[in-house]
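Sanity check. The docking grid for cobalamin depends on where the pocket ends up, so I'm generating a full predicted complex first rather than guessing from homology. Inputs follow.
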Amino acid sequence: MAEVQHSIKFAARKSGLTPHVIRVWEKRYDAVSPERTDTNRRLYSESEIERLGLLRDVTQAGHSIGQVARLPLEKLRKLAADSPNNVKVEPAVRPARKTSAAGSFLDECIAAVKALDARVLEDTLKRAATGLGAQGLLQRVVAPLAHTIGEMWRDGSITAAHEHFASAVIRIFLGHAARPFAGTESAPVLIVATPAGQIHELGALLVGAAAGNLGWHVTYLGASLPAAEIAGAARQNRARAVALSLVYPEDDPRLEGELARLRELMPPETVLLTGGRAMPAYRDALEKVGALQIKDLPHLGSVLDDLRKSSRKSKP
Ligand code: B12
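Predicted complex below; grid placement will be based on this.
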């Protein structure tokens, strides 16, 4: 009996990919070879749909589509089963394209990334800062831009060079953008870093820029710092809080020890704040050290306000 064949819509729903990603993976990487109807519509077999789902899982776990697209089904199954993030995750959702000002700044940024045009990217970020204010720039343009770039790299619509380029421009821009936000001498101090093993830095930069804009005195330490260094900086600057960004990996066995050491070495009154896409994976370890788990930048704003109020009250 002939195998049942399905439409691209069905294949997308079952595999958790978008039809756009399926087409790109087919055209650029030969990931699948669907049959065609008389009217040239794609038709996918059950095994091709399984293949697409597995490709989604392994790319989500960190393999690039170029490396895995043509692997035989058996190998893909094994790779997915061995992958450290072997959990079904919800299909990635790209930020909805709005026709709002933020949406069009975001579109312009994406076009500049595709064109590798640093001048246009910087200029667009500057205009977004003026048009939307600092928090609007960070929450509605830079954060969704980082997510979109990650998705586009994963689905193969941009290359690693585009991703590196965008990260470099955003990093420099946020470094400069944070300066005019720097708080006064009497402002409470926030130390921002990522712990050892966490090299993704944009989340930490976003947090530093957001806190600086809210009047905090930010000491930005950068990425992948051992606990003793972070704690030393917290003691030296009498920090009210330390903010850590956790992005990738989600299964680093050393992180629990790093967090415990940090809590032990930091002044007891310094509050530990954490956020980032990998944060939920370390929930138990974070609870053990009493870290506040903050879901996004607006939430950070209200936590920082509360901390500020409570330090004012406790001052003689
Ligand atoms: C830039 C980038 C890189 C750059 C990093 C450069 C740098 N110096 O930072 C480079 C190119 C080096 C890189 C490398 C890799 N990357 Co990368 N990268 C990204 C990208 C595009 C942005 C990363 C980032 O900084 N995000 C941080 C912020 C912007 O996002 P967020 O965590 O959701 O945080 C939000 C909030 O939670 C909040 N927040 C963040 N931190 C904190 C902290 C506090 C205290 C608070 C309150 C809030 C807060 O701010 C954000 C705003 O909403 C992401 C895409 C993405 N969706 O994030 C992929 C991504 C993180 N990378 C990924 C992967 C797989 C890799 C590699 C393994 C690729 C490879 N095959 O080599 C390597 C890993 C390197 C390593 N050893 O860790 C995957 C991770 C998938 C997974 N399983 O989790 C992602 C998600 C891309 C994807 N869609 O697949 N990457």
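Relevant for the grid: Residues 253 and 282 are 10 Å apart (CA to CA).
Also worth noting: The longest strand covers residues 217-225.
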